[in-house]
Automatic annotation (TrEMBL):
SMART domains membership: EFh
Protein name as annotated: EF-hand domain-containing protein
Pfam families from the UniProt entry: EF-hand_7 (PF13499), EF-hand_8 (PF13833)
SUPFAM superfamilies: EF-hand
Coiled coil (residue ranges): none
Domain EF-hand: 64-99, 137-172, 173-208
Species for this entry: Felis catus (Cat)
Xref: InterPro entries: Centrin_CML-like, EF-hand-dom_pair, EF_Hand_1_Ca_BS, EF_hand_dom
Keywords assigned by UniProt, alphabetized: Calcium, Metal-binding, Repeat
């Protein structure tokens, strides 16, 4: 077994995670090797995360992107109220992300509004947009990794796909360890890892760290 990390002894599958993450290099992605900035976890399903102690990568909007967000805010605030109403916010999301937010999402956002104001201020709007952008980028990176290992474009990963990935970067890992990792990621135990399974594993590990 490996040494304790933060008072918790990692599982063999978790140690396999670090090995794969350190060796993995994916073109066109900020993930892999030293550039792999998501945190490792004692949860084995975070097999594509970096060493323990690393923090999630932060993202900052460029000046031009920040300017675009402000422009959208002003465009949706047609009456120059200084804030966005519920409907204004929905339009802004469509303009920036290309989809209409659900009632649940809109309710969640509006419930977080400062009670002393009548709507979403520019500062609150920019904070929400930045967080949504981070989530969007994170999901895109997960998709990039999944696609890299789905060499046959089937829309799912098999145990053999996992074995091939580990053989490339951590050939000394046992079959038992690889199987343990695969089973933890395979949420519905159908011997196939869908993107939904894979995304859940990645996000679960990120939240656990």
């Amino acid at each position: 077994m490996g040494e304790d990390i933060g008072g918790v002894r990692p599982s063999s599958a978790s140690l396999a995670a670090g090995s794969l993450a350190r060796g993995l290099q994916l073109p066109g992605s900020g993930l892999g090797g030293r550039g792999f900035c998501y945190p490792d976890s004692v949860v084995a399903v975070t097999m594509f995360f970096s060493e323990a102690g690393a923090r999630p990568r932060t993202w900052e909007a460029s000046p031009s992107e920040h300017k675009k967000w402000v422009k959208v805010f002003k465009a949706c605030d047609e009456d120059n109220k200084g804030y966005l109403s519920r409907e204004d916010f929905k339009v802004a999301v469509v303009m920036l992300f290309g989809y209409k937010p659900t009632k649940i999402e809109a309710d969640s956002v509006m419930s977080s509004v400062n009670p002393n104001t009548s709507g979403l201020s520019l500062e609150e709007f920019l904070s929400i947009v930045r967080k949504k952008k981070e989530v969007q980028l994170h999901r895109n990176e997960i998709r990039h990794i999944f696609t890299a290992f789905d060499r046959h474009y089937r829309g799912y990963l098999t145990l053999e796909d996992f074995k091939k990935a580990f053989r490339q970067v951590a050939p000394k890992l046992s079959e038992r360890t690889i199987l343990e990792v695969f089973r933890e990621v395979d949420q519905d135990s159908d011997d196939l890892v869908s993107f939904k399974d894979f995304e859940y594993a990645m996000n679960y590990g990120r939240n656990e760290a």
